[in-house]
């Protein structure tokens, strides 16, 4: 059964506000024709994950939202599904003060869905991917392309509250002078 749109929007806002993710460290892997190899962690890797906060990702107006039913089951809990897709290019959000414009542009092109626990109002899982290649450049000259971005996040209910359990960020990009790079990031969580 479907929820009224006003309640659905409120439920999304509450879920995003409640979500607290504290990553202690991030494993980085390079993927190529020889397989997947772990890379040494750099401070920048952890900072990069911190630039993807859900409150910025779900800033009002970023996505065209579709509110689904509230009777699906995930992890033995009733969930409410919110699907999102990019706005037309002319309506996409500009970065706000303090935000990274490159990340903002990529976020504008994400599509996916979020499952919200109907009882607690918290995020159960989130999955997103790029709807289109994102080009970065100077005037008409492409300097880089974000070709793939797959992001997934799941929480686990411990009987009293939801806690971050797993996350995965996979990206593939092309940059002028370096070619194509394919990487995967896996954060490890600590209590917030």
A few lines on this structure:
The chain has four helices and eleven strands. The protein is α+β, with helices and mostly antiparallel strands and 192 residues long. β6 (110-117) and β7 form a beta hairpin.
Structural class: alpha+beta
Number of helices: 4
Radius of gyration: 17 Å
* H-E order: HEEHHEEEHEEEEEE
Shape: globular
| Mean pLDDT over the residues | 87
What is the CA-CA span between the terminal residues?
34 Å
Number of strands: 11
State the helical fraction: 10-25%
Largest β-sheet summary: 11 strands, antiparallel
Low-confidence stretches: none
How much strand?
A: over 45%
For the structure shown, list the relevant keywords:
192 residues, 18% helix, globular, alpha+beta, 4 helices, 50% strand
Layout: helices, strands, pairs:
Layout (H helix, E strand, L loop, with lengths): L4 H14 L4 E10 L2 E5 L3 H8 L3 H4 L5 E5 L4 E3 L2 E10 L14 H8 L1 E8 L5 E8 L3 E5 L2 E17 L4 E14 L3 E11 L3
Antiparallel strand pairs: 1-2, 1-11, 3-5, 4-5, 5-6, 6-7, 7-9, 8-9, 9-10, 10-11
Give an overview of the whole structure:
Strands 1, 2, 3, 4, 5, 6, 7, 8, 9, 10 and 11 form an eleven-stranded antiparallel β-sheet that branches. The model has no long low-confidence stretch (mean pLDDT 87). The protein has helices at 5-18, 43-50, 54-57, 101-108; strands spanning 23-32, 35-39, 63-67, 72-74, 77-86, 110-117, 123-130, 134-138, 141-157, 162-175, 179-189. It starts with a helix and ends with a strand. It has four helices and eleven strands, in the order H-E-E-H-H-E-E-E-H-E-E-E-E-E-E. Strand 8 and strand 9 form a beta hairpin. The protein is globular. The protein is α+β, with helices and mostly antiparallel strands and 192 residues long. Helix content is 18%, strand content 50%.
